[in-house]
User: Fold these one by one.
Assistant:
Number 1:
Amino acid sequence: MNLTSASKSSEDLNSAENKLNLLGQLLSEDEQTLWLIYRELKNLAGNAKLPPCALSNIRAALASIWQVTNDLDIEFEQLYEVGV
Amino acid sequence: MVNDNFLGRFEFGEYWNPMNETMPREQLEKLQLAKLQRIVSYAYEKSAFHRRKFEAAGFHPDQLHSLADLDRIPFTTKDEWLEEQKRYPMFGEMLTAPQELATRYHATSGTSGRTPLRVLDGRKDWQWAAEMWAYSLYAFGIRSHDIVYYAFGYGSFIGFWGSHYGSEKIGALTIASGGMSTEARVKQLIELGATTLCATPTYVLRMAQVARDMGIDVARESKINKVVVTGEPGGNVPATRKMIAESWGAEVSDIVGMTESGSCFAFECRHHPGGTHIMEDHVLEETLDPKTGERLGYGERGERIFTSFGRGFIPLIRFRTGDLVVRVPGSTCTCGRTWDIYQGGILGRVDDMKLIRGTNVYPSSIEAVVRKFEEVDEFQIVITRENGIMDEITVEIELSREAEERFTVVSVQLAKDLADAHENLRFNITQADCGSLPRYELKARRMKDLRGI
């Protein structure tokens, strides 16, 4: 099964397809997937209902994927509001 | 049997981040501007310190339309930062987020004799700090099959902390030697088959000396083939590099960073271009005349001004580092990176130049001469003023046990070579007893100015 396409809603796909990177270019398919994962983790990292084991590891994962989106010029923003 | 795909053998050749490391300059500048606009706006919005500074200078982030607008942004100085920490303990009003969100604390080593500078990092800031090291170590040729040995004390000085995590990112077996003695470290790195040694240049040489006293030739008996040095000059001093390379039978890479920036910002790749590539996708570096503030071009010696795109907890924008550099194009290296190079690494500090009887003297220029003498194990520079008028400079040298008898010959030649390198300035040479001069694991302080000026 293609996990990527299975987990994307059509709304997500549209926003990822139209998303521009820091150089003003459209994202490749892999980059779109990375950006969607980043966005999902960012939503989860702010979810205080999750237990510490989940929240803490999600924040660690978000820090890692933040680095990927930063290195690949997909996104560059600060994340302290969600504890990262 | 483990599938090779899971052994971390993702060796993509030369670059950690191929796209950015070879990006055309025009695009690189576009990327820098996008990041600069974001970090400057964030600092203005979240940090009272930066807002005060920007407003006092009549600057607003909306005025930043191109990199040419950079001059509108006021500088940040270390004195100002320290003053801010004193006025609003512990961290000043530079923080952009509540202290509770920080996960790491580090401080400067305080080698300049002043209060150490305190810094905080959040989760992603630390991720970035390690990433900068991963770029650098990868560029030097360190891969997942390497065994990387850290001869480092792991205190609150940032030192090799980020490097340790960067090595783990690459997937290398990463060994922390913590509070072990030098003898124990020498034995352990041989026993574990370490291939890469990371330490300050002074300490790398110290380890080789101690090994020699233990009857061990590390060039022959260890598997070290790469030595990474940082934390102080030395890795960029040709004679010191040669000595390190010969002692260990290894290649040397000089990687430069500072606590203020949160990580390293420039590295020497495995093509050894005679300098360090600036990681221009994550930092913005300018070279200015330290006196006039005039922007300098390629090949001109000036002060390094630093802006970080990595650390958001304490944004560092147009920081006057006091480092002296000469910038040249990336094309002077054969590696294919488009990132500019600091030729010769960090050449010295604006404030560590000494004027002796009209001649400019830098500790690094003395080290460059002294390290050519393999008889010298350690040295110290002492500057005094005789009768309140005449400045004198003395280099105390400690010779290895085997060379102790050769002091007269060595001192005559050394005095001549030092004079030749410093407009015929007279240097006094004295002999220190074997083992009497201080040894350093972190930043060496070999120059003592006793003139009281």
Note: The mean pLDDT of chain B is 92.
Number 2:
Amino acid sequence: MPKPARAIQGNFASDTIDVLTGPDGEPRYLLADDPTREFSYRSPFILELEITRRCNLRCVHCYAHAENRDFGDELTFADFCRVLDQGRSAGIRDLSLTGGEVFMHPQFFDILDAGLARGYDVRFVTNATLVDEPRLQALCARPIKLITVSLDAISPAVHERVRGPGSHRPALDGIDLLIAAGFPLSIITAFSRLNIEDFDALLGFCVERGLTWQVQMTSAKGRCPRSITFSPDEYYAFGERVAAAIAARPPITIVSMDDLNTFSLLQPLGDLWRFWQGLCVGGLLNIFVRATGEVTPCSALAFPECVVGNVRRDSLAAICAEERCRKALAWHRPDALTGACASCPQRQECSGGCPEILLCMCKARTENEYCYRHIEERRILAEALGDG
Amino acid sequence: MEPRSPTLERAEQAMKARRFGEAIAAFEAHLAEWPDDVRALLRLGLCHLLDRSEETFVAIHGRARALIEGLREVPADLARLWAHYQQLTRKVSATALVVGVMALPACQSQARAPAKSLPPAAADASAVAATPAKPLPPGAADAGVTADRWRPHVKYSGGVRPHPIRPSHRYSGGVYMDPDFNGPIPEF
């Protein structure tokens, strides 16, 4: 009987970063265990590489319009190697591979090896449905810092409502294989009206298995229809559930993504604000290269107006050196805010919140309706003045 | 009967327009003349809450309670507003509690290692300047990073504990606190 595959343990650099204020009063990002490493737009923390848009699933909310077909215009293995070299030149040492579905790329393991050979700490995102014994054996031979699995529900019907027929069982089987092999694993769930009913079941699933759980709101981009996304009031209720789950101190880490980390006057919701880092860190802690070669500050900012270059013609190192991501996000600043955001006492520290939400969920990019304080203010004024 | 005055009208208009500082001044002027106007008092409190003066908001709760308890009859609209205020007070008090807990020196002992030790929590924004620089990890000095040059970022001052973050990206890892963080998350 063959011995079960076991993941080899890598010697990975810490992920923990201290946010400090430098002598100039600006926030600075230093690796906690090695403050000689400082992250900036010139040298971000992590390179996110979308290696393909090909995917065996066709999720209703996919930002990348991924599906099982040949997109034709994607970067080659040689392109990826060049980008990886340029990323290292910019001082980047962490790499995240994403898709589409990474296992649908015929050279996934070659790309992974190319990253490892260049000294990157490598992680990747997968739907886990294609994790079989041969792939598991291949993964086990490589040091992987983190595998993140997209899982949108525990109920098969709910999961498949989002990710399509036949997607549920293979995902759970894949997760079980990865856990059994000893990989560091996290689950990521994008919540919408389609799967919010499974919130507690997902939390229980992650707690049972000791998995980190990343939660975020599905936003109306890519092929995601607006009709399945939350209204601001639904967003508020969702945030309350996440905050309550964290406040209950579960034995796992719950990661609320930036779209959830707006300011609230009230507890426990107000606790999520601690996760907001004072500004959007797109381009500063992470930089995203799409399979088309386009570069954006963050995978969440995969909008045409956020494209800062294309690695087919621009060097990634030059894009970083020229701080193009900072310039692309120059509109995201406190003095540009309007409406309720303009008069908010918190505006200097949030600048309106996550730019992705401003760009695809709000009426204007200068006023965030998906902000707890904004919603609380609206409700308080309606109650106090009776005109709600 | 709710006492009406041009000052009260001005206060309400300012509140509606989210000019909370102006609304506070007008409500206070009105209350100087009509100290028993509970509705105006509650609206004043709500303006303080929206203007980030949680302590005043909570303090007004006590004044309003005394006035309401003295009423022979509480009109439905006032009862509703009072219920809303009470509900908000409970949730805001939790915030005040968190800040209070963070101010306790004992919390600093929760730091897991010298590199993570906390500066004394600042009770308010004015205390930021007095917040000692964060001790830096070993090796920092070699890199020319000296403790007196670096302070916790302003976001994490003013009573909010600075914490290390673990950045990654939206689809893999997220940005989250140090898993060893054992800070004052309120329990409910």
Note: Residues 96-134, 154-188 of chain B have pLDDT under 50 and may be disordered.
